[in-house]
Amino acid sequence: MAVARKIKTLLTVNILVFVGIILFSVYCRIQDRSQELVQIVRSADRRARSRGAKVGSLADRESILQRLDHLEEVVYNQLNGLAKPMGLVEGPGGLGQGGMAATLRDDSHESETKYEEYGYNAQLSDRISLDRSIPDYRPKKCKQMTYPDDLPQISVVFIFVNEALSVILRSVHSVVNHTPSHLLKEIILVDDNSDNVELKFNLDQYVHKRYPGLVKIVRNNKREGLIRARIQGWKAATSPVVGFFDAHVEFNTGWVEPALTRIKEDRKRIILPAIDNIKYNTFEVQQYANAAHGYNWGLWCMYIIPPQDWLDKGDESAPIRTPAMIGCSFVVDREYFGEIGLLDPGMEVYGGENIELGMRVWQCGGSMEVLPCSRVAHIERTKKPYNNDIDYYAKRNALRAAEVWMDDFKSHVYMAWNIPMANPGVDFGDVSERIALRQRLQCRSFKWYLENVYPEMRVYNNTVTYGEVQ
């Protein structure tokens, strides 16, 4: 009986184990199948959602395209409505496209009158598109360069007095067309008390409708001159970097990124875009050779050969150390410009302020350089806008700069203008504040500047006397 019970117990256990194995196998198969069903359901759901999303995105895209078409039509009509009543042209193509020389068949007495008024062919300018393209004269290496994503924004300041409206607006269009929108914070137009009626209402209406919120207009109640007008532009600027330009320029592709990069690397750098020429009579854009900006002892600016170390490098894209600047364009850190004393507000009209700034920046711990990768084309006018006595103001400003910054070498300036040091007969104003500025900034001597920055400048030693032989 005992043996029979053991056999019965073993059979029962075996049966239970066998049933357990079968049940476990069935359970596993059910789980696998359920997972497959879940995956199938989820996949079907994703496909359904995807189809719905595609249908939705297609519908959204059609809606967006319709809106863009409508917006394009509105903008086109709006722009034509702004430009045509003023006799101006917008958009690509037309006369002067690509910086080519342009002419008019119907040259008239009006054309000659505008030549005399503006110092360039204003009648031709009115027929050239505000959006024309110009040649890309950057060195090849510049076109391959990349720049940081976190560059500071720039405020672009244009100074004008009795300029042709089309030339001002082409400057504005050009900087907008060739500057990334996230870098261009604002454009500031400083009107130095122009007499021209179309530079009032027409200009205001155009820029505020064409570029709402982007363009500010500052109007001087009296004519201050280029120097103090630029200071007014600086006061109105709000971005970290400010660019100062004449209001008769056109910007080249990629002009702003290299300038902002150099200033981001060193805020005490003043950057001068390389200058190309716009011919005053045909508006043809001509390339100028790479050059530094120098001056003679009369403090008249001029192009000079780049330093020998730059020539030895053989890299046309490299920055060019320059003793001073021609003056039609420069880019500077806004706060740094204030720290070093802006431009000298005691100078009149213009002339000499560009040389004085170069001396001051170098002597007071900063630097100045021409940047071949940043290019701006500029009209060299045959007539200056302020008055016919610019020589007097250039002389006055030169003596003012000499008294503050040039130490014993100031005698060279008096000699260049052929006037005595003891009684020059020129009232250059009170320079005590500028001398105090030099002391506060702990600036170097002019001798250091000549030896380290402008060694090409010829020095006259042991001069006994000077004057004219009649």
TrEMBL record:
Keywords: Disulfide bond, Glycoprotein, Glycosyltransferase, Golgi apparatus, Lectin, Manganese, Membrane, Metal-binding, Signal-anchor, Transferase, Transmembrane, Transmembrane helix. Residues 155-339 form the Glycosyltransferase 2-like domain. The keyword Cytoplasm does not apply. GO terms for biological process: protein O-linked glycosylation. Its cofactor is Mn(2+). It is a single-pass type II membrane protein. One of its GO terms (molecular function) is metal ion binding. Its main location: Golgi. It comes from the Eukaryota. It is found in: Golgi apparatus membrane. The keyword Membrane applies. One of its GO terms (cellular component) is Golgi membrane. Pathway: Protein modification; protein glycosylation. Gene3D superfamilies: Spore Coat Polysaccharide Biosynthesis Protein SpsA, Chain A (3.90.550.10). The chain crosses the membrane at residues 7-27. PANTHER family: N-ACETYLGALACTOSAMINYLTRANSFERASE (PTHR11675), POLYPEPTIDE N-ACETYLGALACTOSAMINYLTRANSFERASE 9 (PTHR11675:SF28). Belongs to the glycosyltransferase 2 family. GalNAc-T subfamily. This is GALT9 acetylgalactosaminyltransferase. It comes from Dryoscopus gambensis. The lineage of its organism: Eukaryota, Metazoa, Chordata, Craniata, Vertebrata. The gene is Galnt9.
